[in-house]
Amino acid sequence: MAVVSREEFYEISPADFFYRNRDIAGFSNPARALYSAVRELVENSLDAGELARRPPDIYVRLSCDGEKGEEGSSVYTLRVEDNGSGVPARHIPQAFGQVFYGSKYRLRQARGTFGLGGTMAILYGQITTNSPVHVISSADGKRIHEYTLMIDIKNNRPIVLKHKVYSNHNGWRGTIIETKLEGEYSRAMPKILEYFRQTAVVAPYANLTFVDPKGRLYRFERATEAMPKPPVETKPHPYGIDVETMKRMIAVTQCRDMVSFLREHFHKIGRTIALRFLLEEAKIPPKRKPKRLSNEEIVKLVKAMKRFTGFRAPSADCLSPLGVELFRAGIVKELKPEFVSVKQRPPSVYSGYPFIVEVAIAYGGEIPRTGDIILYRFANRIPLLYDEASDVAWKVVHQLVNWKYYKVDPSKDPVAVFVHVCSTKIPYRSVGKEFIADVPEIEREILNGVRDVARDLSLYLSRKIAVERERQRLDVFEKYLPKIARFSAELAGRNPPDVKPLLKSVVKYGLEEEEGGLTS
Amino acid sequence: MAVVSREEFYEISPADFFYRNRDIAGFSNPARALYSAVRELVENSLDAGELARRPPDIYVRLSCDGEKGEEGSSVYTLRVEDNGSGVPARHIPQAFGQVFYGSKYRLRQARGTFGLGGTMAILYGQITTNSPVHVISSADGKRIHEYTLMIDIKNNRPIVLKHKVYSNHNGWRGTIIETKLEGEYSRAMPKILEYFRQTAVVAPYANLTFVDPKGRLYRFERATEAMPKPPVETKPHPYGIDVETMKRMIAVTQCRDMVSFLREHFHKIGRTIALRFLLEEAKIPPKRKPKRLSNEEIVKLVKAMKRFTGFRAPSADCLSPLGVELFRAGIVKELKPEFVSVKQRPPSVYSGYPFIVEVAIAYGGEIPRTGDIILYRFANRIPLLYDEASDVAWKVVHQLVNWKYYKVDPSKDPVAVFVHVCSTKIPYRSVGKEFIADVPEIEREILNGVRDVARDLSLYLSRKIAVERERQRLDVFEKYLPKIARFSAELAGRNPPDVKPLLKSVVKYGLEEEEGGLTS
User: Fold this and answer.
1) For the segment A23-57, what is each residue's pLDDT rounded down to a tens digit?
2) ipTM > 0.95 for the complex
3) Cβ contact, residue pair A101, B70, below 8 Å
4) Residue A113's domain is classified under what CATH number?
5) Which domain holds residue A176?
6) Contact A101 B10 (CB under 8 A)
7) Which chain A positions have a beta carbon within 8 Å of B437's beta carbon?
8) A29: nearest CB among B69, B389, B440
9) Global pTM value
C-alpha cells in the first residue's frame, strides 16, 4: 500500500535561502561570522578604492557593547569607513539590503564576485541582533546620503527606515557602514589580524587601520602611493561561450551581420579571424543577421567556437596581477627569507575567462619549521585563510609536486610557497570565497609555476650544499697547508712560503657570491 | 581628482547566480559535474522512497553518445528511475526547472536541503548540451505525466516544451529523469562507484543498480526489506529561534494567547513550562495576544528563550539515525575488521535543530594501512566524499583527539573512524553538500563520540598487547618447563611429571577469549 504524498512545495527568496543556510556563506559560528563580516566589508572598500583610483584609506572599528549573546559570544558594533568611489544614492538600499544585487556581475577582476558578501554581513547582523544597518555614502562629492535599513528577508527587498541627505562641504567621497552583529572576538582575533597582515602584503598601496574591541590599534601604513594599473572590463573570449551566453548576446546586439557581431562582442576577434572562423569552421555566411540565427545554428556556432584553433589567446591587459617585484617585496618584508624566487606565468584561460598565476617560493629566514611546507594563498589580491586543504593550490603543493626531486624535505626544510591567482572570475568553490576549484587549466598553471620556482630553489640548495662542502674542504686546506709549509720550511731551514696563492688555486666555487640568492 | 563612478548595478536571479557560479554547487569540471549530477538525482530518489515508505529500487544508467566535448570530456545521457513518491504533476515544472523551489524547506531529516541539487544537475546539462530534460512521474498511481523542460535561466522559471499525460495501467508510482550533460566518466568513475558502495552501506534497504557507459552493471542488492522508522517533521525548539523566525510564526499563528502560541508552535513546550517561562523569564503576560506583541517585546521574548534553562531537551523522535546494529553490520560487511565499536550519542541541539551523532571505530581486518586514520563521513545517510579536510569530523579526528593517549599510532595502525550526523538541518558549509561546519555543539558531540569508541579500542589494544606478552611468556614456559621436568626426572630416575596443570596455573589472561572484540 503506497501512501500518496502530500508534500508541500514552495519557493523561497535568495535572502531566505541564505538566512536558512548562513553556514555556506561563511557565517557558521560567532567567531567565523565576525571574521567574515570584517572581511566582506573591507573587500568592498578595497574594490571601491580601486574603482575611484585613489589609494584606499580604510578604517575598521570593532567595539563590544557588553551585551552577552549565546555562550561566549557578545554583540559587537562593526564600523568600516573608506574613501572609495561611494555608492550612488539610488542604489544604496538594494546594494546593501538585497541578495544578488550588485555591480560586480561583469568580466572584470574584482574582490567581490557574488553580490552577496556585504548584504550577508548585514543580514547576519539583523538576525542575530535585530538592529538595522547604517549606510552613509557620497558618490558625487556633492551630497551625503545616510540610510537606515533592514532587510525584508522573505521577499529579498530592502526596508528603508530612514533616509537623510546632507550637503557635502568638504567634497568627501566614500562609504561608511555600521552594523551590529553577534560575534566572538577572542576566537576570531588571530584570523582577523592575519587577514589584515596578509592584505597589507598584497595591497601595499592601502592604509589599513583596525581598532579592536579592547581599544588596541593595529595600523598597516601604505608602502607606496602608486596604485597598480586598474583592472578593466573585458569582453568574453569565444572559447568559453555557452549557448545561454550566446543567446543573451544575440538578444542585446545592435550588429546586423555576423562579422561585426563577432568583432563587437568578443575578445580579440578581428575582421580576418572572424571571416576565417565563419567560413572555415562555423560554415555560417558572414552577412547573416545574428538575430535571424535559428536555435540549431546557435548551438552549431557555439560548438564551432570551442573547436576553432585560430582565435588569439586572451590578453591579460584586463587583469591586474601583483607583479614579480611587488610580490617579492611583500614576501621579503614579511618573512626575510634567505632565498626567494617569484614567477609570473603567462596569461591563460579557462572557460573563456583569462587568468594569471603568480607563484613564489621562499626558503629560510623567518620562515618557521612547521614540519610541512607553508602555503599562502591569494586570489584577486585577497588572502584566503580558511579551508586550505580544499584549495587547488594545496593539491598542487601537497599532492602533485614531488619535492624530493627538488632536494626539498617538506618535513624539515623551512619552505613557504605563495600562490596568487587573478582573473576576471575566480572559480571559488564556496560562497564564502575560501578556496578555489581544481579547474584543470588553473591547476596546470599553478603546477608549472610551482615547478619553476622549485627548480630555482633546488639550484640554490644544490649550490648551498656544494658551497658547504667546499667550505669544509677549504677549511682542511687552510688548517693544514700553513702548518705543512711551516714544518717543511723549518726542516729545510727556510722562511715559510706564502700559502695564500696556493689556497686560492684550490677554490672551486666563488664563496663570496653565496648571498646572491635574493637576486636570482 | 576623483573620478565619479559610473557603475551599473543590477539584480540577477538565483538560477542566473548558479549559472554563473556553478563551481560552488559542485559542478567545477566535467568529472566532478558528472559525480554531482548522479549524486543529486540519486539522493532525490532515496528521499522519495522514504516518503513513499517503500524500499527504494533505484536504477541509474549513464550512457555516452560518443559526442566529444572539451578536452577529454564527452556528452552523456543520465537516466535515473525510482519507485518513490513521485512529484505531483502541477509541481513538476517548478520542482525541476526553478532554483530555490522545493518541498524540503522544513524541519525534517532529509538528504536534500537546498531545493537546488536536482535543478542544478538539469541546469548544468542545459548549458553544456543545450538539450531539454525529460521528467516522467506519477504521484497518484492513476496518471503518468511526461514533461519536456528547459530552464529560463535569466528569470529562474521553467519552460515547458511538451506535456503528455498517459493513463497508468499498472498503478506505477515513481519518477524518471533523463538529462544530457557534459562529463568525463573516466575521471569520475572511482568517486561514483565509491558513492554507490558507501550509499549501500547506509541505506541497506535500497536496491541500487548502476549501468556505466561501458555497459558494466553494478548492483547493490538490499540486505533487508525493513525500512527504518521514517523521519517526521518537527516544530522548532525555542533555543534556536531568532527574531525573523518568531515574526514569521506570529504572522501565521491562529493562537490568541501566549500560552497556546508556545504550546502550538514549539517543540516540547507544555502548559507548565510555558507559564513558568512567560512569568519568570520573559515577563510577558500569559494571556497576551501574540499578534499584539511590539517589536521590542518580540526581541525580549527571543532573548528570554535563549536564556531560559527550563525547556526540555529536544527529542530525537523526529530523527532517523542508522542505529548501532545497522551501522556495525555495514562496517563489518565492508571492512571485516578484527575489532569494531559503535556508539550513538544522546540527542543534542544546535541553534534549535536537534541532531544525533553516531560514531564508530574499526581496527584491523581489511582496513588498509595508509599511514593515517581513514575517515568515513555520512550525513543524513549520505556519504560525503569530497573536501574531507574542511569537515568538522576531520578536525576532530586529525586535530583534537590525542591518539597516543589511546595507544593508537595513526601512522602505523590500521584504524578507520566513521561519523554519521543526522539532523533536521545539516549545517553544510558548501552548496555541494561536501562538508559540515564546525558548529561547536556538533564538534563537541563528535569529539565525545570519538573519545568513547577510542577508549574501547584502547582497551582492546591494551588487552591485545597484554595477551601478546602473555603468549610470549607462556611460550617460554611451554618450551622449557617440559624439558626441565624431563631432565629433573631423569636425574632423579623417575618418570617426568605432567606439567599441564603447572602451565595452566601461570596463565594470567584467558587467551581463548581473545577474538571477542567484535562483540564488545
Assistant:
1) 888 888 889 999 999 999 999 999 999 888 889 99
2) no
3) no
4) 3.30.565.10
5) 14-220
6) yes
7) 23, 28-29
8) B440
9) 0.83
